[in-house]
């Protein structure tokens, strides 16, 4: 009896018979031999059907199998250095579960709009499959990183009564006759949780009604947001660089096949080891000005600026001490120079831009009240947040890492819409 297994576990069964439950990805034939490209979700493998070695009925049946038909294949596993996976299957039997109709995604080139319209099918193809497997690895690495360090996972609400990050860019919903919003960040709730559990992280979808059509923006994206009591600006950067190193090294270790499928040059990723370089916002402005950029202190970086700054380094770089006026109300001003905040953005190499935004938070009651007033934020709705400064307030810090931008960087792909199973962008809510 053949063992039922999956393609990713096939190395354990060399020279043994196995059964794989999957789909026909592609097929070619040379008369007496048919080559079936089989996928089962865990990987891709070539099945070889030799006319003289199988039942004539099975050989004929294989000819009728169309692209993406579901099939159960039994065969003997052979080690083969030429195969991308290192293995091949000498097919002995093929059972057809369902013959697929003519498949819309052929193996030739298609336009991006067509592929995005068929995203539900596109994710079956090797490159998209590799991207989403890497996404899964990053997800797991993040959870392992925090749990190994005793962080507690807390889930902030997705429906919020007020803006959590800025007043624009909100998706408004009708909450039984009251205005409510889809959350832009879980941070404020994570701060409450940090005062209850010490070290916490939230990891969930966030929503921004940004009308930007760039290759770095989604309207629904996932963010991991740690928040830590008794941690200051320095401690905050330390955990960020440790986490990013951990994620990158895990993907390099466990997703070699997928990185190869994506033709990702991994040399730059190997270098991602803590500590990371830092530059202050003020020095970054000088750097840009010295290199011919029209840029004033107080301006926000655009993609060309971020890319230029990142190119000065081999690793991700922290840009620290942004102008207080540019950043969110909750960021702690630097006591030595209140014009700038004790926060940083982490810029990925190779033009992938900002992957993390974070800061120490204001813990002083009067200062947070003053900031809310300055930003004209409705105090009543933030009462609970102000309470955190009334009852046992401590210096605390946190940050948010954008999952999709991290996936894009590690995969080396040019557009963020391919880094999430079903992207939500300015012009797309289908499928
Ligand atoms: O810098 P942001 O806006 O920071 C916050 O929301 C903080 N409250 C996080 C915190 O301190 N807990 O967003 C954090 C990260 C960015 O660095 C970026 O990686 C990602 O979220 N991001 C987006 N990713 C995809 N599409 C968008 N529209 C994004 N906006 C932000
Ligand atoms: Mg930011």
From TrEMBL:
Q: Could you confirm whether the keyword Cytoplasm appears in this record?
A: yes
Q: Name one GO biological process term.
A: asparaginyl-tRNA aminoacylation
What is its subcellular localisation? Cytoplasm
Q: Name one Pfam family in it.
A: tRNA-synt_2
Q: Which UniProt keyword terms apply here?
A: Aminoacyl-tRNA synthetase, ATP-binding, Cytoplasm, Ligase, Nucleotide-binding, Protein biosynthesis
Catalytic reaction(s) noted: tRNA(Asn) + L-asparagine + ATP = L-asparaginyl-tRNA(Asn) + AMP + diphosphate + H(+)
KW Kinase (keyword) present:
no
Question: What EC number(s) are associated with this protein in UniProt?
Answer: 6.1.1.22
Looking up Gene3D superfamilies in the UniProt record yields: Bira Bifunctional Protein, Domain 2, Nucleic acid-binding proteins
A GO-annotated cellular component: cytoplasm
A Gene Ontology molecular-function term?
Answer: catalytic activity, acting on a protein
Coiled-coil region: none
Q: How does it assemble?
A: Homodimer.
HAMAP family linked = Asn_tRNA_synth
Q: What family classification does the UniProt entry report for this protein?
A: Belongs to the class-II aminoacyl-tRNA synthetase family.
Instruction: Give the protein name, as stated in the record.
Output: Asparagine--tRNA ligase
Q: Which organism is it from?
A: Geosporobacter subterraneus DSM 17957
Which gene is transcribed and translated to give this protein? Answer: asnS
């Amino acid at each position: 009896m053949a063992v039922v297994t999956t393609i990713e576990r096939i190395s354990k069964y060399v020279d043994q018979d196995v059964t794989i439950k999957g789909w026909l990805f592609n097929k070619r034939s040379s008369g007496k031999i048919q080559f079936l490209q089989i996928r089962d979700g865990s990987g891709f493998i070539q099945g070889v059907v030799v006319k003289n070695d199988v039942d004539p009925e099975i050989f004929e049946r294989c000819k009728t199998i169309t692209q993406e038909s579901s099939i159960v294949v039994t065969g003997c596993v052979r080690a083969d250095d030429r195969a991308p996976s290192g293995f091949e299957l000498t097919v002995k039997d093929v059972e057809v579960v369902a013959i697929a109709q003519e498949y819309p995604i052929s193996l030739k080139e298609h336009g991006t709009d067509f592929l995005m319209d068929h995203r539900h099918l596109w994710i079956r193809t090797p490159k998209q499959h590799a991207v989403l497997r890497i996404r899964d690895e990053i997800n797991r690495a993040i959870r392992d990183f925090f749990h190994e360090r005793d962080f507690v996972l807390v889930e902030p609400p997705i429906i919020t009564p007020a803006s959590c990050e800025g007043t624009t860019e909100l998706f408004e919903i009708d909450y039984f006759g009251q205005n409510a919003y889809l959350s832009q960040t879980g941070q404020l709730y994570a701060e409450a949780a940090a005062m209850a559990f010490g070290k916490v992280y939230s990891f969930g979808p966030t929503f921004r009604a940004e009308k930007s059509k760039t290759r770095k923006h989604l309207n629904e994206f996932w963010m991991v947001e740690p928040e830590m009591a008794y941690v200051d600006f320095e401690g905050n950067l330390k955990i960020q660089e440790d986490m990013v190193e951990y994620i990158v090294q895990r993907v390099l270790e466990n997703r070699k096949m997928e990185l190869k499928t994506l033709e990702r040059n991994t040399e730059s990723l190997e270098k991602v080891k803590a500590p990371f370089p830092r530059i202050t916002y003020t020095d970054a402005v000088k750097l840009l000005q010295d290199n011919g950029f029209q840029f004033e202190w107080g301006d926000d970086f655009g993609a060309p600026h971020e890319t230029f700054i990142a190119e000065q380094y081999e690793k991700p770089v922290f840009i620290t001490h942004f102008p207080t006026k540019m950043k969110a109300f909750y960021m702690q001003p630097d006591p030595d120079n209140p014009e700038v905040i004790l926060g940083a953005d982490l810029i990925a190499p190779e033009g992938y831009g900002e992957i993390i935004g974070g800061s120490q938070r204001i813990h002083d009651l009067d200062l947070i009240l003053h900031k809310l007033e300055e930003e004209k934020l409705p105090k009543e709705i933030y009462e609970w947040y102000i309470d955190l400064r009334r009852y046992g307030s401590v210096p605390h810090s946190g940050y948010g890492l954008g999952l999709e931008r991290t996936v894009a960087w590690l995969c080396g792909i040019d557009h963020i819409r391919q880094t999430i199973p079903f992207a939500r962008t300015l012009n797309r809510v289908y499928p």
